[in-house]
Specification:
Oligomer: single chain
Shape: flat
Structural class: alpha+beta
Number of strands: 12
Low-confidence stretches: none
Distance between the termini: 112 Å
Number of helices: 23
């Protein structure tokens, strides 16, 4: 016998007591125009008086109908289960992320503890399933694609199989072959393809091709790559292992760019021949002799030729101190190194590098990238006596670029006072904004040969300047600027002024030392003007001393710019006040 529910839990039912109820209900049906609204409209369209017809309705249905909700008695699109955003849905989101991770991962065996840890990582350490719930969800999700291995005293291992391989497994079961026979058949097919392929060892691969996966895959057996694709999901590792296998199968006829690159890196980084031999014996790298052949092939047979015709070339020389490994820790190698800035850069084309079959001797290799040292004869009269210093006349307005520079300087200095500070860029940003639309050429850097001698010796500097003179005549470059830092600049100027044969060389001071000297000159001129007292209100006393000499470069540059801006602001304020006073009078 079924008992009735208590009054508190029963649905509230109302009767229609006004004639306007039917009109408001019809308007709401037209406004809703959905399935529930159409059903109600069909029911009441033949009713003229709801009071006489004793029309009754549920309270909950009347509220839901007028507020645009769905039917309480007959829900149409309401999702089953708990509402969206519940704890179970959050658990499901973390579980789906776990399944996606398992499907796309190279590892296929996990313990239950590892799966719980991955589930916490995927859910962001929120609400997750318990171990029992996780086991049940995995069984429902993977079914026959998951094997569970249980051993006494050990943790349960879950092995996930690849769904796409079920067809192959079914085909294999129909062939009647044993697993050993199937593996042997695959090995024979791969071996035949590797041994019948002709590999080109006449030249080394280009360095740009080593980062191209398609080029690296073309060098090995496609059957081998197909086999490894079922074992290794990562493409880079798959290609590297395929090169190791091919090199182990054909060590004398296959040249792997990947294994050769590993050998060159280990030799240059660790300087260990034993390490290269060890990796080569394990088929993880090429042998040491191949590294020496590569070095020999990179050394040109004659003088190196540069693409400097119709280019602007700027030479830069500086100390190149290289620490050599000695028993005492001493014996640092001091040489003079140089680079060439070439503008425009032009198109860089990587040429083919023929493979060398012989290794050059140490004597022949030592001659590469080295300039012979020339003897400098010191004159009786110093060359600096011939230097004439002329005024630059910076305030001359004959040059348009100089007038433009003065105008831009004043605009930038005044911008701190006529605009908001946040909108005024610094000096570098101001110039970058102005020059954004101006076309410029990209430069490239070429390495110059070393001069195996002390950089401070006059013979070394004279040899570098003579090399610049010879290059200018050989490539018809005209005047070549040669840049030195401050310690070498004075000696280089002395040599150029005392050598009448160096007519195509102009010695320049490095940009950093040039600015330091310029700031030091300003500090010397402004001595006693109160500039140091002004800066000491912000910086320390000892710091201001180095700023005035230009040694504290960054602080001095900022202090000079702010001081100049403040002076311009003071001048603008005074000029505005004077104009106001004149206008009022």
């Amino acid at each position: 016998m079924i008992s009735k529910q208590p009054l508190k839990r029963r649905d509230k039912i109302h009767e229609s007591k006004t004639k306007d109820f039917i009109h408001s209900l019809q308007e709401k049906c037209i406004e809703r125009s959905d399935k529930w609204g159409n059903e109600v409209h069909v029911r009441i369209q033949n009713i003229g008086d709801t009071v006489a017809a004793d029309v009754k309705y549920h309270h909950d249905c009347q509220v839901s109908f007028h507020k645009g909700r769905e039917s309480v008695q007959n829900p149409t699109n309401r999702p089953k289960g708990r509402p969206i955003g519940s704890v179970d849905e959050k658990k499901n989101v973390g579980f789906y992320k776990l399944c996606e991770l398992l499907d796309n991962n190279d590892d296929h065996q996990y313990t239950l503890t590892e799966l719980e840890g991955l589930l916490k990582d995927c859910s962001g350490y929120g609400e997750v399933y318990t171990a029992r719930q996780l086991k049940s969800k995995l069984q429902d999700r993977y079914k026959d694609e998951m094997n569970i291995t249980c051993e006494q005293g050990k943790e349960t291992i879950y092995t996930f199989l690849n769904e796409s391989n079920n067809i192959l497994r079914q085909h294999y079961s129909n062939t009647g072959l044993t697993p050993e026979e199937s593996v042997d058949m695959a090995g024979v097919l791969i071996e035949d393809e590797i041994r019948t392929t002709i590999y080109d060892k006449s030249q080394y691969p280009k360095f740009l091709e080593m980062s191209n996966y398609e080029k690296m895959e073309e060098r090995v057996s496609q059957l081998l790559l197909r086999l490894l694709s079922h074992l290794i999901k990562d493409r880079r590792r798959r290609i590297a292992i395929s090169h190791s296998i091919t090199s182990a199968a054909r060590p004398r006829s296959f040249l792997s760019p990947i294994l050769l690159g590993v050998s060159v890196y280990c030799n240059a980084k660790f300087e260990s021949r034993e390490l290269v031999h060890l990796l080569s014996s394990l088929a993880f790298a090429d042998d040491y002799q191949e590294v020496l052949r590569l070095y020999s092939a990179m050394l040109p047979a004659g003088e190196k030729m540069y693409e400097w015709v119709d280019k602007f070339v700027n030479f830069v020389f500086d100390n190149a101190d290289i620490d050599t490994h000695t028993l005492t820790g001493l014996g640092t190698w001091h040489v003079l190194g140089g680079i060439a800035g070439v503008t425009p850069a032009g198109e860089i084309v990587e040429e083919n590098l023929p493979r060398s079959t012989q290794v050059q001797s140490v004597v022949d290799a030592g001659r590469f990238a080295q300039l012979p040292t020339k003897k400098y004869k010191k004159p009786q009269v110093p060359g600096l006596r011939n230097v004439l210093i002329k005024p630059l006349e910076p305030f001359s307005t004959n040059h348009s670029f100089l007038r433009l520079g003065i105008i831009l300087d004043n605009i930038w200095l005044a911008s701190f006072h006529v605009t908001q500070t946040a909108r005024c860029p610094l000096w570098s940003g101001f110039n970058q904004t102005l020059m954004k639309q101006i076309h410029y050429d990209v430069s490239r850097i070429d390495i110059l040969p070393f001069i195996n001698n002390s950089p401070n010796h006059p013979d070394t500097l004279y040899s570098a300047l003579c090399y610049a003179q010879d290059v200018s005549e050989k490539y018809r470059l005209g005047i070549i600027p040669v840049t030195f830092d401050q310690p070498l600049y004075q000696k280089a100027v002395e040599i150029v002024q005392a050598s009448p044969d160096l007519t195509k060389v102009i010695v320049r001071l490095g940009g950093f030392h040039l600015l330091m000297s310029y700031m030091g000159a300003i500090g010397h001129i402004m001595a006693g003007s109160g500039l140091s007292d002004l800066w000491e209100t912000v910086y320390g006393i000892n710091t201001v001393k180095h700023m005035l000499t230009g040694h504290a470069y960054a602080r001095a540059l900022r202090a000079h710019m702010l001081t100049a801006s403040s002076l311009v602001g003071k001048m603008l304020h005074t000029s505005t006040a004077c104009n106001t006073q004149l206008g009022s009078s």
